[in-house]
Amino acid sequence: MYFLYTIIASLSLFFILKWMKRRRYFMELKRLDGKTVLITGGNSGIGKETAVAMAMRGARVIIACRDPSRAEKAVREIKLKSGSLCVFPMELDLASLRSVRDFCKSFLMREKRLDILINNAGMPGVLDWTNDGFSMCFGVNHLGHFLLTNLLLPRLKECAPSRVVTLTCSNYKYQKLDFQDLNYNLLPFFTYCRSKLANIYFSQELARITEGKGVTSYAVHPGFVQSSWTCHYSFPFQMLMQVIMWMFFVPCEIGAQTVIYCSVSDEAAEHSGGYFVDCQPATLRPFARDAGVAKKLWEASERMVRLV
């Protein structure tokens, strides 16, 4: 009898975990021939799987990564998996505003098109600071991508219709922004939550200011994914999270589906400024839909990255 209970419990757990990890696949194979896609952090995880999907559709794919050797290795793997030779690395460190500016200058000189910008790279909550004195999490996840997008926005407008897809997380709901201390860094998890909320406001305000100009913007929660974010933490924590991720998180290929959907789907094009989960629009908490806060964050970010 004990054996039977064990079998039933094991099967029940198996099916519960399968149910928790269910996700939609985006099956539309829309071609992207002649289009250029830029993916930050495209050397691993969701970014890498997204790069494979974009390359398979015929796009010219640029992988932006702070480590040239890792980028080169990823490019070889993406080419092999996608069967495309149009995948190229470029060096970018989102923790340095100078690096972002240098990257954009090089990109605009080298690339004549930019049709899809995927702000994928992210930093988990860590007690560290960027070269410019911002908390690492807020600086990389929001400010680095904010500056990158603004500097590349003229090229996106030239190539309209174009899209900007920014990865966020459902953890945004656990924090609100404090404009007296956007750099909050005492509790890393809450700093991460604030940065993900900032991504959502950024995507909404970008949609507002580019309305009618051919550029659309989307915020994507890819789900909880089996990526390499734990590398920033201690070995015991990594081992614990590997077990948890295996049980409850989805593979990167599945996590990339909503990113791909927002990058190419005609349906998504009708929801600029929207928040997407599992290849469909999702509802945000009321405080995350505040247009006044989104505008205020945009203006504060302009000052922080010295755009004004």
UniProtKB/TrEMBL annotation:
- Ubl conjugation as UniProt keyword: no
Annotated TM spans: 6-21
Q: Does the keyword Transmembrane apply?
A: yes
**MF terms (GO), sorted A to Z:** oxidoreductase activity
Q: Keywords in UniProt for this one?
A: Membrane, Oxidoreductase, Transmembrane, Transmembrane helix
Domain of life of the organism encoding this protein: Eukaryota
One of this protein's Pfam families, by short name?
Answer: adh_short
Alphabetized PANTHER family for the sequence: PHOSPHATIDYLINOSITOL-GLYCAN BIOSYNTHESIS CLASS F PROTEIN-RELATED, RETINOL DEHYDROGENASE 14
Q: Which family does it belong to?
A: Belongs to the short-chain dehydrogenases/reductases (SDR) family.
Q: Which protein is depicted?
A: Retinol dehydrogenase 14-like
- Gene encoding it? Nfu_g_1_017204
